[in-house]
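Table S5 (text form). Sequence records supplied for joint modeling of the two-component complex.
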Amino acid sequence: MTIEIQNPTSKSTGAPIQKDTPIAVRIDDLTVAYNYKPVLWDIDLSIPEGVLMAIVGPNGAGKSTLIKSILDIIEPIAGSVKIYGKPYSKQRALVAYVPQKGSVDWDFPTTALDVVLMGTYGSLGWIKRPGKKEKKAALEALEKVGMLPFKNRQISQLSGGQQQRIFLARALVQNAAIYFMDEPFQGVDATTEKAIINILKTLRKAGKTVIVVHHDLQTVPEYFDWVTFLNVKKIATGPVKDIFNDDNLTKTYGINYKVSIQQ
Amino acid sequence: MNITEYITLLFTDYTLRTITLGTAILGAICGMLGSFAVLRKQSLLGDAISHAALPGIAIAFLITGTKDNTLLLIGALVSGLIGAFWIRGITRNTHLKSDTALGLILSLFFGFGMLLLTYIQKQPNANQAGLEDYLFGQAATLLLNDVWLMAIVTAICLVILLLFWKELKMLLFDEEYTKTLGFNTRFLDILITTFIVVAIVMGLQTVGVVLMSAMLLAPAAAARQWTNSLGVMVILAAIFGAVSGTIGTAISASHNHLSTGPVIVLIAAVFVLVSFIFSPSRGLLFREIRFRKNRTDLELHKTLSFMFSIANAHEDIAHPHAIKILNNFQGYTKRTLQQLELKNYVTIQGNMWSLTPLGYKTAANLYNQLITTNE
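The corresponding structure-token record, covering 638 residues in total, follows.
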């Protein structure tokens, strides 16, 4: 199988990672299993601050599970996760999460603005209701993803791409340092994909760390500067320009891959 | 008995007033809390819990030997909660799916409850008569104390609901996200399950073990059809429930031999039926109307755009063409042609049609419109 890549821009956009760059996420010996079957096996991974990283791997490789274990949604059998040196439960304010679009029922009776407002609930804490300040932040986030005209729309009446942008806006409201996104490009059209990638690049420019579960290998060099190959075990992690090659792709997907770069 | 007579009776007759108040409050609390069961996709949980409450009633009677309603309901509450959390435990810790766990607990507890009931009936204790009323409910046994209890429980539930509104709403929509924000989803989940158990236990005396889940689900399912806001849905469900209770009591009171619980459930079912058919945005009727209208519009547009392509081949757009060249594949039927003429898009002379300037313009814009409306 051959992957055609057009205009690898990563060479120019990929910011060089300095040796003294702090580690945003550090994972040690992480092992997760569902019903005795290992899904993630002894993962060691350090994600430097400020990268835009793709997690790639075949179906069932444990990509979503990795994100969910980092976020304490799934309890690992062994291992530890540190966000800037501390456990996630102490660093929630630094982290925002965009789940898979299909993980919720979009027929839920609520509006786009309401969903985005949920991004402020974490900082509000128990019982306190969102006020003017929170509403303003939510409207700004809707503006950023180009969904402001749809703020009062019932969420089931939005297209798949629009729903994805609402999820993205909800994470933007959290104003975090690290963003975890589970397949944000799944089932969206070219316009939305472009809108999303622009937001991701803006986030990285602002010094945020963005970690994205990604399926489309062709766009990896164009969109990301850092990549992790995952298939139950960690195959490789590092800058796209150094490690996005046939060898790692073959190791991850088990088929002979050839990266042909059209200059 | 006509309506005015009934209303006068409602304000003068103490028993009728108590029962009506009781069933109305019951309907309201069931609608309110049932909304959460429906949106949490735990509709069947209500059924399992109400059946699971039966052995609790029997055991409470065996221990105390009295038929004090509050004591029996505490028994129901305990065994309902045990059933509910047992189901939770089974689905979380084993490979069994929730439908299996629900079915298992429902039949196990109900069977055990029936066993105890028949055992109690064989006892010499004269007190036992009427215990089987909990199967289908007996609204006539409602006392003012019971109504007060219901009102207080409803008020407490309402306060908790308002307090944790934001958290509950988020949990219902996206549980995992709620967890990542640091909220204790286990606590919220237990809160919702407890809500469902409480609502059911409140209704056992009036509606009974067997029909109770309908009381919980019907008002909420009906309310969901009319609104896209969670707050409005909960309020509407409470109103539907209260109205079902009031009307159900009225019907059963004016027809001496009708049992109240089933009548209330049937009225609630009427709300569901009407809502599913007549709701403007989600109802079957308007969906069918919209579907038909779209289909005729599409046929019309297809014919018009086909005509447009033919007319475009000629210098003069009004050049007449034979009707025969139109065919079914382009959405053409005699009716569409008539409608096009009615809209002044075409003129027909004998076997020939020709596009009017208006028709030409509309057809030309048809394609542009499609692009803009689809973003």
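Note: The longest strand of chain B covers residues 346-349.
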